[in-house]
Automatic annotation (TrEMBL):
This protein's UniProt keywords: cGMP, Hydrolase, Metal-binding
Pfam families: GAF, PDEase_I
EC number per UniProt: 3.1.4.-
Composition bias, Basic and acidic residues: 9-34
Record's protein name: Phosphodiesterase
Top-rank taxon, per record: Eukaryota
Matches recorded under PROSITE patterns: PDEASE_I_1, PDEASE_I_2
InterPro entries hit by this protein: GAF, GAF-like_dom_sf, HD/PDEase_dom, PDEase, PDEase_catalytic_dom, PDEase_catalytic_dom_sf, PDEase_CS
Organism: Chilo suppressalis
Cofactor(s) listed in the protein's UniProt record: a divalent metal cation
Co-factor note (free text): Binds 2 divalent metal cations per subunit. Site 1 may preferentially bind zinc ions, while site 2 has a preference for magnesium and/or manganese ions.
Domain PDEase intervals: 426-757
Amino acid sequence: MSVSTPKDMNVKKSIEKNEENANATKDAENDNRSMSKVQSHFLVPSEKLDKVTRRVIAPYAQIERKGLKEEEAKEGRYLDMNRFNVFLEDTVDLDSLLYETAMVLKTITNSSGVFLYVVDDVRNEIILMPHNTKMPERHEVNIPIGEGKIAAAHAAATKEFLLIQDVQRDRRFSEGLKWIDAKVALCMPIVKPDGNCHAVLKLYRTNTESYDDSVVYTAVSVACWAGAAVHQAQARITLQKTAHLNNELRALLHSYFCDLASLDTMITDMLAVVKSFMGAMRSSFYILDRDNVVSGHLLADMWDDGWHAEKTTMPKKKTKVNLNQDQTPAGLVARTGQALNVRDAYKDTRFVKEIDPTTGTVVRSCLVSPIKDKHGVIGIVQLTNKSNARPFSVEDEMIFEVFVSYCSLIVHFYNMQHQKIYHQNLNDVYNELMSLHLNPCRHVFEELMETNGIVLPPNNFKSYDYHISEGSKEDMPGLVCFMYMETFADRNFDRSRIANFCLTVLSCYRNNPYHNAEHAFCFTHTLYLVLTSNPGCFDYVETAALMLAGLCHDIDHPGFNNNFLALCKHPLSQMYRSSILENHHFYLAKKIIEDKNILGKLPLVDRERILEEMQYNILCTDLAVYFQIRAHLTPLVGEHSFDWADNAHRKMVKGILMTTSDLSGCCKPFGVAKTIAENVYEEFYSQGDKERAMGYTPLSMMDRRRSINQPAEQIQFLSVVVLPCVLLLQTVFPNTSPLTDNCRKTQDAWREEIEIRGQRLWRQDDSLGNLSRSRYSTKSRSDLT
Ligand SMILES: [Zn+2]
């Protein structure tokens, strides 16, 4: 351009100002953040960027989202039954303590004897406590609680003490004291603070000396205290048991989730804990088959340890038990979703009588609870026959509830595992199918192999100005093979495999206006020129990784940017937290490289390094990552402290090299660069259209209604993104200056376009007004200029 107009001066000033800003940004970012941070997570801290830069890079910058916390890995352990049993032995035997209290009362009240009856709430009976508490069942004597028949049963019913001064003549009780030949008696209920009678003490004298007031007073006082103590002890034991059960189950769960123990192990351990805890003889666990629940069936997988399972370690698993017609407590719970405490299943007409064929054990008491989610019953846990031959108590129910809540975690985990296994297998199936189809057309492949897999390049191929012409695009695979041969594909690489690889990768590019095979080719070509004109800077592995990454770097690009994928919750955006597309490109590149086994002849260590380097290189094509690298590398080369021997420094140069190659379309002669820019806009606009249809206002660059801004935007993009990149590369590789020259020429040409069009120049103030609007504003803007 020979003539400068005032308008041009404004643009130049504006650009210079932006370049200064960009430099200031670099300085500000020149801190000691590690490179790993650069790779793992991009965000140029927005407060460090001027608004113009922010606007220009907006399509490439990512929107920060809150990430999930890393799973905490801690050491775990599985169930140790010995340690667990010690606790159970340690619990207080309340009835024995009461018996001791009774004996003390007998002495101080000068009684001839004492009987202790314990109340059985469930059966509404009082049970005579034997002297030998170790074998309770054999001496059990039960008396129904009720007024007017037997003195002790009367006291249990009225919960008031009862003094009988003359047993023979007292007509209040038709059956008297039962079994005792006594003259006087004192029945003392032990009532807990909640009003429930726990036991009855019966003191008696065989002589005629009656109990005086002070004796009665003492006995009543002791009984009161005993009631309070029983209550406290029971509450403490329940709490202690619940806390202990909680700890046990939590520790188990923790270890399972850390080690991903098998479900069988989990259920076995959990059942062992709860069975031993509650003193049940048998335990069962059901997991309902969800798919069948929907269709009205109630099929379940069942784990059951059978009778006397103390000797076995693993419950037997039966698959597909049908609970729909099943006349068992578990079947009823599955159908109703209601927990059950069955006191005598044998007599209960709802259930089929169940007798163990080998031991003749009858199912009597059982505690059954459903495990539910929001859709209904997903599992069932059952405990059968309490070992003391009594039904399960209210306290048992409370403790069981704690257990059931842990079981629900297990069932959820189980269902998730099932889903996971299903999807893993589905993925394998798809992968196999995909490998089958990731192959070039046989004719095309054979044609390429007729020239030994390569196409010889045209004369201007060694120039940065070269660009593949419309008519020679079918030569791209052969030319890539040629570039591979020239840079790294020595005798360790099979020619036909390389040809197959190149054809396959290029065919995996979609037919996008910009992110297509042609772009991948252009990228690879620039990379090839820089590497071949600066030999010896990178080692063999680095060179191979760069060239392979170049061809693969946008593979399967959908034509939308990362922000859009996140916006529409694309599956890929759920898979990767940052550099969504770049991670996908690498994933596919790796798959094709492995499928085609093109690195097969290399030592394992080289193969691994190539893939590792490729991953880094491809992730560097996220412009977001580029800004970070630029901020680190610029001061290094500026201060002449760049060191080729430093791996971190080399990595940064590789990153800049990847970005330069990616942007090299802007560094072609203007005619080509303009066509490429138009292709970029075509792709951007189609994204913008989609955003608008979703109710969002697209960015100016993606808004076809604002296409008038194109030249100005290009000038901005070149000065904020492209020029600093190629200039940085030029300081490392001075012979890349043609890229910079072309870039500048292109800028000038865009300025001319503006002049020719006679359009108002892009002004910073205007664009800032737009920028301040929310990215996701749903308001439409009709006053666009
Ligand atoms: Zn690209």
